[in-house]
Design brief:
Blueprint (H helix, E strand, L loop, with lengths): L1 H10 L3 E3 L4 E6 L2 E7 L3 E9 L6 H10 L3 E7 L2 E7 L4 H21 L3 E2 L13 E6 L2 E6 H20 L4 H24 L5 H19 L4 H31 L3 H6 L1 H6 L4 H32 L3 E3 L1
Antiparallel strand pairs: 1-2, 2-3, 3-4, 4-6, 4-7, 5-6, 8-9, 8-10
Helix pairs in contact: 1-3, 5-6, 5-7, 6-7, 6-10, 7-10
Length: 306
């Protein structure tokens, strides 16, 4: 991605927000964003011809340009999805040619750049590129001032809001149940998967955040402890189901004798190997997801000009 940034910067006068993988440019008086992902890029405009742009109209460009894969329209915001090539050079070419084609299409169809929030054109209030709550937006200076003030107010309210630890624990426990279900279902199919770790990480932390009111380091630590316990529980439920099938016992009886059977059989090593793999895969799945959630939480209230 950094190579794509560097080569794009050399080709045009872009402003860059490397943290979010975003470039801001202006061609023929039409501002736009390029949001670079791993497998595709989004080319973003905010335009009007006196009313909201129509998706069917924008699809005409998709049909004309093979490098543009799709388009979505939300209000005044138009996002074209650009195909990446097998090499950086082809990707750069695809992006630059798509920009030229899209700008020409907007101009020939009499679309004017406008504020994404109000629909007012640049003639009414100067337009520029801003990052608002982690989302790139083309806004007027007036709209940005109003929206960033609202974000600052929300951030202040959150900072003084007390963390409801009891509620957070309840939320994390409820959320982690989805992770337990995933562990048991996947294990009963004969696998140990990172997917269960992803589910456990997202649902547990989200559960804490929703009922706890906010996500802090304390909340992450509590969520981590709950995940450790719930992974252990999920593993034991899996073993209990297997024991009940083998011995013809009901689930509650087999759950009560899991440890007894493991202790006095030759399955102890297998049990701990399975549990260790579950913890490993839960860490692999959950830790990156927690990092993403924390980053998203931190950027949710940020506002600045790119």
């Amino acid at each position: 991605m950094k190579k794509i940034f560097r080569e794009l910067l050399e080709s045009k006068s872009f402003r860059i927000d490397e943290k979010h993988g975003v470039l801001f440019g202006n061609q023929r008086g039409i501002p736009y964003f390029i949001n670079i992902e791993d497998k595709y890029s989004a080319l973003i405009f905010s335009v009007t011809n006196g009313e909201f742009p129509e998706q069917e109209k924008m699809k005409e460009l998709v049909k004309q340009e093979s490098k543009i894969r799709d388009v979505s329209v939300t209000g005044y915001r138009v996002e074209f999805i650009i195909k990446h090539g097998l090499t950086t050079k082809v990707t750069i070419t695809n992006i630059l040619e798509s920009i030229d084609a899209a700008v020409s299409f907007m101009a020939s169809n009499r679309y004017e750049p406008c504020c994404e929030n109000t629909g007012k054109t640049g003639a009414d209030d100067r337009l520029d590129g801003y990052m608002l709550g982690g989302i790139p937006k083309i806004l007027s200076e007036t709209s940005f001032a109003e929206l960033s003030s609202e974000l600052s107010s929300k951030a202040h309210d959150l900072s003084i809001k007390k963390e409801n630890v009891i509620g957070g624990i309840v939320g994390a426990l409820l959320g982690s149940l989805a992770g337990v279900v995933a562990i048991v279902i996947i294990a009963q199919l004969g696998y140990v998967s990172v997917i269960s770790g992803l589910i456990m990480g997202v649902t547990t932390v989200k559960g804490y955040s929703l009922l706890g009111g906010k996500l802090t380091k304390k909340g992450i630590a509590i969520s981590g402890i709950i995940m450790l316990f719930m992974v252990y529980l999920g593993n034991n439920i899996d073993w209990a189901l297997s024991i009940s099938r083998e011995l013809g016992m009901n689930f509650f009886e087999s759950f009560g004798v899991v440890w007894e059977i493991i202790e006095y059989s030759q399955l102890k090593e297998v049990y701990y190997q399975n549990l260790g793999m579950l913890y490993l895969f839960t860490a692999i799945g959950a830790i990156p997801m927690i990092i993403v959630l924390v980053k998203d939480n931190n950027s949710k209230y940020t506002a600045y000009k790119i």
